[in-house]
């Protein structure tokens, strides 16, 4: 089986936590890699953002990333990418013709890629699998007061994909409910495939890993550490954590706490300097360290250095950071939104907070940090919970979705050609 994956606006090879790269990059990279291990040939088509990578990057056997030139390499914002849809589609046509390639199905990620996938679904007469990752109407419903609203044009494009994709893959059953609340969707075309984590990389390690990680990061050994890992944008809620810490220090100015915020700015209205200025304004800048985004191999040490990982997002389709944290034995305090109640077992592997008020978050963080026995017990159970989520298992479920689509779906009623495994 040969699969054409489309991830136009961001490459799976980009560093998560910076720019537009985040959980979707991790998702596409790991699903493609695990599918390739199971014998599926996967080409991921993405927009070229630097010439040094070349047209083809062979990631692993049977898995490659194809960089399509569409617009300038740099200086094009995500909001401007719709102007390059035709150029991107033309680049895929040229690549497939030059290499005499045929695909058995398309799996498009995010709405921009979905629009491209919709075109090739009809050109190639093969099934279109669509994963939205985030949805405009759902995002708007859960956005903070300061967040820019997603456009009605995007919502209309997503409704078109809901109507025309052969299969909609979502992360959780809760995402089905959110999708059905905001879009006119046919339940029968929805499939749930829960994402995973690299549980061989993200591990608690030895008993001295926390000490070693803190020494490497220059963090005091005998302080309580809260970590935030993700893109710096209002929707992810770093400001919620900063205000909660300010509330905690107002209650107890001598509280021994440090905060590690690892991530880069995302979006035109966001900057690291904005959050640094907010920390200064709140009087917590001496307790907060801002760290550059880093690859998973280095991210492990931040999870291991932390006593608690905070995930104060306004919505998450799943919450990969929460699973990665738990895999390292670090309990999570997360917002009770989206797929986070699936990722985190409330009261067992972490705590879920209703809303985003600083007082509620301060209460939860204080309870977690002050009760060592509870926190350690949660961390032990967190490792066991994370083992239930693996990319290998996710890819196995995705392959079932693919095989079902190839067996049951006949785009436009045309005869299906024989499929190879």
Brief summary:
This protein has helices at residues 23-37, 85-98, 110-124, 136-142, 152-164, 173-182, 209-217, 238-251, 272-281, 296-305, 320-327, 340-343, 358-370, 372-386, 391-408, and strands at residues 2-6, 41-47, 56-60, 63-68, 105-109, 128-131, 167-170, 190-192, 224-229, 257-262, 288-291, 308-311, 332-335, 350-353. It is α/β, with parallel strands linked by helices. The chain folds into 2 domains: 2-196 and 390-413, Rossmann fold; 209-386, Glycogen Phosphorylase B (Rossmann fold, 3-Layer(aba) Sandwich), CATH 3.40.50.2000.
SSE layout and pairing:
Blueprint: E1 2-6, H1 23-37, E2 41-47, E3 56-60, E4 63-68, H2 85-98, E5 105-109, H3 110-124, E6 128-131, H4 136-142, H5 152-164, E7 167-170, H6 173-182, E8 190-192, H7 209-217, E9 224-229, H8 238-251, E10 257-262, H9 272-281, E11 288-291, H10 296-305, E12 308-311, H11 320-327, E13 332-335, H12 340-343, E14 350-353, H13 358-370, H14 372-386, H15 391-408
Parallel strand pairs: 1-2, 1-5, 2-4, 5-6, 6-7, 7-8, 9-10, 9-12, 10-11, 12-13, 13-14
Antiparallel strand pairs: 3-4
What would your notes on this structure say?
The strands form 2 sheets. Strands 3-4-2-1-5-6-7-8 form an 8-stranded mixed beta sheet, with helices on both faces. Strands 11-10-9-12-13-14 form a 6-stranded parallel beta sheet, with helices on both faces. It folds into 2 domains: 2-196 and 390-413, Rossmann fold (3-Layer(aba) Sandwich), CATH 3.40.50; 209-386, Glycogen Phosphorylase B (Rossmann fold). Helix 7 crosses helix 10 (296-305). Helix content is 42%, strand content 16%. Helix 1 (23-37) links the parallel strand 1 (2-6) and strand 2 (41-47). It contains 15 helices and 14 strands. It has helices at residues 23-37, 85-98, 110-124, 136-142, 152-164, 173-182, 209-217, 238-251, 272-281, 296-305, 320-327, 340-343, 358-370, 372-386, 391-408, and strands at residues 2-6, 41-47, 56-60, 63-68, 105-109, 128-131, 167-170, 190-192, 224-229, 257-262, 288-291, 308-311, 332-335, 350-353. It has 421 residues and is α/β, with parallel strands linked by helices. Mean pLDDT is 91; it is low at 413-421.
């Amino acid at each position: 089986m040969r699969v054409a994956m489309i991830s136009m606006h961001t490459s799976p090879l980009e560093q998560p936590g910076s720019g537009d790269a985040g959980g979707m990059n991790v998702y596409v990279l790991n699903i493609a890699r695990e599918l390739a291990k199971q014998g599926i040939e996967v080409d991921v088509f993405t927009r070229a953002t630097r010439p040094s990578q070349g047209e083809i990057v062979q990631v692993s056997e049977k898995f490659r990333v194809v960089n399509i030139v569409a617009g300038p390499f740099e200086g094009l914002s995500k909001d401007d990418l719709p102007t390059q849809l035709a150029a991107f589609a033309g680049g895929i046509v040229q690549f497939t013709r030059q290499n005499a390639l045929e695909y058995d199905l398309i799996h498009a990620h995010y709405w921009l890629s979905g629009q491209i996938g919709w075109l090739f679904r009809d050109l190639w007469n093969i099934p279109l699998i669509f994963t939205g990752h985030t949805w405009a109407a759902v995002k708007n419903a859960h956005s903070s007061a300061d967040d820019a609203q997603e456009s009605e044009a995007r919502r209309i494009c997503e409704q078109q994909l809901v109507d025309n994709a052969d299969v909609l893959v979502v992360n959780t059953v809760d995402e089905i409910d959110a999708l059905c609340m905001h879009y006119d969707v046919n339940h029968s075309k929805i499939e749930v495939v829960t994402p995973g984590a690299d549980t061989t990389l993200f591990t608690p390690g030895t008993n001295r890993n926390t000490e070693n990680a803190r020494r490497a990061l220059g963090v005091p050994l005998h302080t309580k550490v809260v970590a935030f890992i993700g893109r710096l944008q209002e929707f992810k809620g770093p400001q919620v954590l900063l205000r909660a810490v300010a509330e905690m220090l107002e209650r107890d100015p001598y509280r021994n706490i440090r905060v590690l915020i690892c991530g880069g700015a995302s979006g035109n209205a966001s900057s690291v300097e904005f959050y640094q200025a907010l920390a200064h304004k709140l009087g917590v800048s001496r307790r907060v360290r801002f760290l550059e985004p880093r690859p998973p191999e280095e991210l492990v040490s931040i999870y291991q250095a932390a006593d608690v990982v905070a995930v104060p997002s306004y919505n998450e389709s799943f919450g990969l950071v929460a699973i990665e944290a738990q895999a390292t034995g670090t309990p999570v305090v997360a917002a009770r939104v989206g797929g986070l109640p699936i990722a985190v077992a409330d009261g067992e592997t972490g705590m879920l907070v209703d809303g985003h008020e600083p007082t509620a978050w301060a209460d939860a963080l204080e309870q977690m940090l002050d009760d060592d026995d509870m926190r350690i017990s949660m961390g032990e159970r967190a490792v066991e919970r994370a083992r239930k989520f693996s990319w290998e298992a996710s890819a196995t479920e995705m392959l079932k979705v693919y095989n079902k689509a190839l067996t049951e779906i006949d785009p436009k009623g045309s005869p299906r050609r024989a499929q190879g495994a």
